[in-house]
Structure prediction request, 380 residues.
Amino acid sequence: MRTLITNGTLITPHEILTDSVVVLNGGKIEAVTDLIANETEQVIDANGDYVVPGFIDIHVHGANGHDTIEGTPEALKTLGEFFARHGVTSYYPTTVANPAASIQAAIDNVARSKQPQHGAQHLGVHIEGPYLNAKYRGAQPEEYFRLPTPAEYGQWLESGVVKLITIAPELQGADEMMSALRPHGVEFAIGHSGASYEQTLKAIDMGLRQITHTFNGIIPLHHREPGALAAAINDDRVFAQIIADGVHVHPAMVKLLIRAKGVERTVLITDSMMGTGVADGDYDFAGMKVSVKSGVARTESGNLAGSTLTMDQAIRNVMNFAGITLQQAVTMATLTPAQAMHIDDHKGRLATGYDADIVILDKALNVKMTIINGEVVHGS
Ligand SMILES: [Zn+2]
Prediction:
């Protein structure tokens, strides 16, 4: 069935088009054109609102009372449906440090679970923990931290769904792990790490290409000890994830990062946890008690424990924080994460042949409709 989206302001995101329509057919974008197709069975009138590629969240643990680490199909269904309501069409369910068996179960669950009918698609697993530095643990449960072992990460690789791993590259065995997994297309991000400037440069030379939630869980920037942050920010090969909730990172530092990296290398993430989208209260996060008060999640020791941010809110926030345009903000939630994960040949743009993952934002930038694989899964 062919669907036409008319009357939209299209943000592709390279260009802004006001006189074009998007033609969807068979789960793909058949054309972005100013010529109206004849055989159209469904017309979606965007009514002057913004038509943008679906958002891609590469670092997200949970929402709506559920978490990736539960390892159940229900958790993925709940997450997918929740994220779709906030414009996310693809995401990488993200684990936390846990016993080997529960991490493996979470991976196997993603490998086995079908895509939800009415929710965002899971494109693979982001492993955050257990190969982290205890000194920079944040809210990660330290008792499950360990050194990389081929026996464990070899099994992750076998699943075929592990696509991104956050590690502290200074750990013994991290180099071997990167050498072993990089040729299989697994991306690495530095995070929860005490790596020096030099150690980080070395990791980048070995193929590390991302920094996890920049500024959080890492040595702060210092003008005489530049550390991992300066190494990652200076190097154009590295994509920088950022939690733009205004709590994890001061808005001025979000702006600083975007000025340094550009929207082509800054990736909006939510890092959201199970307390997202539900009332304030106490939740279980990787076996720890986490309290959510006024939307801010903390462990009992007071560390921030993931966010309650949604991607549409991140876009609105970052426009305010950094004084950037909607087009720039959308880029950081679509094309840039797609490039960071090497899926930009079929996701992250409104272009012919791309997957029909599309979001319509109203004038206040709220999500009015979400289309995944050519099907309307949220809004009408
Ligand atoms: Zn983290």
Remarks:
- The chain has ten helices and 24 strands.
- Residues 272 and 306 are 5 Å apart (CA to CA).
- The chain has a mean pLDDT of 95.
